[in-house]
Amino acid sequence: MTNSGISERLRARWFAPHPLAVSALVLFVATSLAVLGKPVLGEGYASLIFVVGIMLIGAISGVVRAVTTAIVGAAAFNFFVAAPLLQFRFSNATDFAPPLTFLVCAIISGVLSGRLRDQSNLSRLANARLESLLNASRDLQPVRSPESLRDVLGHHLATLGPLAVTLDWFAEGQPIPDRRGLRKEAITDGRTMLGALVYHPGKASGEDIAFVAALARLSSLALTRLRLDTEVADTRALAKSEELKTALLSAVSHDLRTPITTIGTAAASLQSFGTLIDETTRGDLLTRIVEECERLNHLTENLLQMSRLQAGDAHLSRNVLSAQDMIRRAIARLRSQNVRRTFVVDVPREDMLVVADTALFELALGNVLQNAVKFSGDGSTITATCRAHDADCTITITDQGIGVPANEQTRVFERFYRAKGRTDHRPGSGLGLAIAKGFVEASGGSIALTSPVDDGRGTAITIRIPRAQEEPLPCI
Question: Are 366 and 333 spatial neighbours (Cβ–Cβ below 8 Å)?
C-alpha cells in the first residue's frame, strides 16, 4: 500500500466523529434551540425539536443510541424547557408524556433505520456475490482442463469471506468421501461427478446457499463444454482420417490398377504369342512395361515420402546441396522418359547451396516438373530458373500449359486434390504438389503458385528455400 493510502486510512480513523459525540452535539443543539424557541413556539412545539434530534440519532446510530438519547433528552427537556425551569419534576401524568413520546420515536426511528441498514447490507452482499459469479464465469471461460478449472474454483472460494466452502475433487477411481452433516453441490461434466462444493448448511444464509449452487452449476457447465469440445474434436479428427483414407484408397487404387493392367496385358501378350510378335511390337510392349514400372515406382516413392513428412521434421536428413545440380538431375530424369517438351535451364554459374533432405528435394523438384509436363502440350517450353533472393534460394518452374483457375489455386497443394478440368486422361494421385509443399515447409521455406503467366496461359511455381550458412556440414 502506498504512503498516501496509509495516511488516508489514518486520517479517516482518527478524525471520524464518535457516535457519542454526535449524540451529545445533537442534544446540545436541540436543547439550545428549544430554550431559545420556547418563548415563541411554546413548550409543546419546542418538544418537537427534541423529537427531530432523537429521530436523527436513531437514523444514524440505531435503536440503542436513539433510546439513550431519548432518555437524556427527556431529562434535558424537563430540566431546561418544561416549567418550572432548572429543576426536575415528574409529579403528574403530563410530565411523563415527553419521555414516552421521545422513547417511542427513538424505537421507531431506530428499528426502521436498522431494517434499512440490513436491507442495504443484503443488497451490497448480493451485488458482491453477483460480481463474484460474473468474475468466476469469466475466469471459467478460457479453462482447457479439469485441473485448471479446479485452480480457478480454489481461487474464488478463497475470496468468500466468512462462508466456509470446501472443494472436494475426485480423482478417477477414487471413492467419494463421506461428508455426513454437510451439504454438497455436485460438479459434473454432464455424465460423471468430478467434484463437489461442501459447506455446513446451518452456517450459511439463503443467499450463500444460492451462491454456492450457482457456482457449482457454472463449473458443471464449463466441464460439460470441455467434454463436448473434446468429443467434437475427436469426431472431426476421425472424420478427417476416414476422409483421407477414402481419398488415399481411391487415388492409389486407380493409379495402381492402370499400370498393373498395362503391365499384365503386355506381359501376357509376350508370353502367349512369343516369337509370333515382331521386334517392333515386342520393343513397344517392353517399353510400356518399363514406363508403367517407373510410374509405379514414382507413386510408391510419393507415398513413402509423404509418410516421412507426416512423421515430422526429426526424420528428415540435412545435407548441403547444389540447387543447380538438383534441377539438372530432375530434368535429366524427365528427358530420359522421352517427354516431348523443351527444357530451358537458367541458373547462375556459382553453386547455390541449400540445406535440405536429398531424396525429398529431388522428389519435390521432379513432382513440380512432372506437373508442368502433365498440363502443358507437346513441343511447349518449360523453364527452370534459380536465383539468390536475400538469404533464400528461389527456384521457379514455368510452363506454357492451360493454367490453374483462380478459385482453385489455394487448393492445388492439398493432398489428393486435383484441379477440375485438368484431370481428363491425365494420371496422377494428387500427391505431387502436396509433397513439394511439405518438403519446402519442413526445410523452412515457402512455395507459391502464379497463374496465368502469359496471355492467359501458363503456370509458375516458385520455391524459396534458405541458403546454406557458413557452418561446415557434410556435402554431397
Answer: yes
pLDDT tens-digit series, residues 268-310? 888 887 777 888 888 888 888 887 787 677 667 766 666 666 5
Phi and psi (nearest 5°) for 252?
A: -70, -40
Please tell me the distance from the alpha carbon of residue 409 to that of residue 405, in angstroms, as a whole number.
Answer: 6
What's the first-to-final CA gap in the chain, in angstroms? 67
Q: State the pLDDT at residue 10.
A: 43
What is 313-466's CATH number, 3.30.565.10, 3.30.450.40, 3.30.70.1450, 1.10.390.10? 3.30.565.10
pTM for the model stands at 0.45
Could you tell me if residue 181 is left (phi over 0), alpha (psi between -120 and 50 degrees) or otherwise beta?
left
Name residues whose C-beta falls within 8 Å of residue 261's C-beta, 6 or more positions apart in sequence: none
Task: Using alpha carbons, select from 370, 369, 383, 386 the residue that is nearest to residue 324.
Answer: 386
For helices 97-140 and 19-61, give the axis angle rounded to 10 degrees.
80
Q: Where are the domains of the chain?
A: 3-124, 142-234, 313-466
Residue 407, CB half-sphere, CA atoms under 13 Å: how many?
A: 2
All three cell numbers of 280 = 517392333
Q: Which three cell numbers stand for residue 115?
A: 431494517
Can you read off the three cell numbers belonging to residue 199? Answer: 459447506
